[in-house]
Amino acid sequence: MSDPLSTPDILHEEDGWRMRLARPADNARLCDLFREVDMSADLCLAEERDPDFFALHRAQSPQAYSVILEDSTQAGRPAFGCASILARDAWYGAEIRRVGYACDLRIEHGFRGARVFPTVIDKFMSFMQEHEGIDLMYSAVLSSNQRGRNALLNQHGKRAGQPVGQVMTPYHMTSIQFVGARMPSDPRVQRAEEADRAALVEFLAAQQKQRLFGYVVDDAWFQARLEQWPGMRLEDFFLLKNGDGRVLACAAPWDTAGHLRRSRVIKYQGKMQWLRLAYNAEARLRGFAKLPAPGDCFHFAYLTHLEVSNDQPALLDALLCGIYNALRDQPWHFMSLMVPMGSPLEAGLKRFRLQRIAMELLAFSNPRSSWHGRSLSTLRPGFEMALH
User: Which InterPro entries has this protein been placed in (predicted)?
Assistant: First the structure.
């Protein structure tokens, strides 16, 4: 595969703007783009990627590329947008194929409305086909973001010629709030020890192979996760094992705030002002963490490496209760997991207080792609929400 530093800088240029590969020197400009806030929302949040925009990419793939979009009509060519694609090997049935995960899409208001996006996605995907051998990519979007969905799924008019999108997996970004008493404990749920490593890796490998675009897992892959994910340790994995030591379910809570990404509250307005008052009143009475004040960050953990044998809801329930009990006395606001809509796993969440945000994984291909025209709908995608 190509070395990003050996590739040409400029991927596309036309009147008024250009697209080029981002380099380490662009770190501050990219972090600034991510701090921009939608002040029309009831909860105004800033996503922060300081001090290293590229660190989140390195946690997932050494073959990660970002482009920065620049306004050529102004002095200094100010950035007005960016996008990233991370290339990796993935399972497709019994085959290992090369796929890309697209993320970090930001385009300022003045350049929206199909002014640049169709060209950006087409040229960037063509570059990845040539340099990384991928001819399909997928991405996560908010279901409520109709403007963003239309931009990705609509190939008519000004968008004719951009890669064709399809819905791969509708899902809920599900947050379990730490607001109640301890849950019933299942003694089968324990933290992983060194003696569990081989069984854990074997379980992860088998589960991912069953997923559409699942990760290709072996011990070297697992060791890379421990080394490259800041703060991740073997003992952070919670395992549910049967009597003979076989792993039936697992997950590893992981906090990205210290090194990779933070969600900082800028302002509560509209209905969120009243919801915050009610929530914080209950927090004072029951002794759980209040919502962050403006200027502070949410404190939460992603449930990474979440796998449940045969998607059995009872196993998920037992695993989550064990993790909930282990974390509830710390100042967390919630723990977050991906649950596909229509999955049997939804039944394993009934005892918890939840907040759900509807999202979708969208897959893209172009007419040059071997995937073009195939349906990629699945309830079991290979997707790590902590890295989205």
Answer: Acyl_CoA_acyltransferase (IPR016181)
Average pLDDT, the chain: 92
Q: Is the pLDDT of residue 294 over 70?
A: yes
367: in domain:
no
- The Cα–Cα gap between 44 and 273 comes to 11
Answer yes or no: do 197 and 317 share one domain: yes
What pLDDT, on the 0 to 100 scale, is given for residue 39?
65
The one-letter code for the residue type at 33 is: L
State the average pLDDT over residues 120-137: 92
Q: Is residue 111 part of a domain?
A: yes
Two tokens at 171? 């899902």
Domain-embedded: residue 362: no
Identify the pLDDT of residue 135. Answer: 85
Q: pLDDT (tens digit, 9 = 90+) per residue, 210-248?
A: 999 999 999 999 999 999 999 999 999 999 999 899 999
Measured CA to CA, the distance from residue 10 to residue 22 in angstroms comes to: 10
Look at the chain and report how many structural domains it folds into. 2
Residues 74 and 205 in one domain: no
DSSP 112: T
SS3 content of the chain, % helix, strand, coil (to 5): 30, 35, 35
Output the pLDDT for position 37: 65
Q: What are the residues whose beta carbons fall under 8 Å from the beta carbon of 323, sequence distance 6 or more?
A: 189, 238, 251, 253, 303, 335
Query: In this structure, is residue 296 part of a structural domain?
Result: yes
| CA atoms of 373 and 238, how far apart (whole Å) | 40
Answer for the pair 64, 57: CB distance below 8 angstroms, yes or no: yes
**Angstrom distances, CA of residue 218 to CA of 94, 132, 162:** 16, 22, 36
Q: What are phi and psi of 272, to 5 degrees?
A: -65, -25
* Per-residue DSSP letter, 345: G
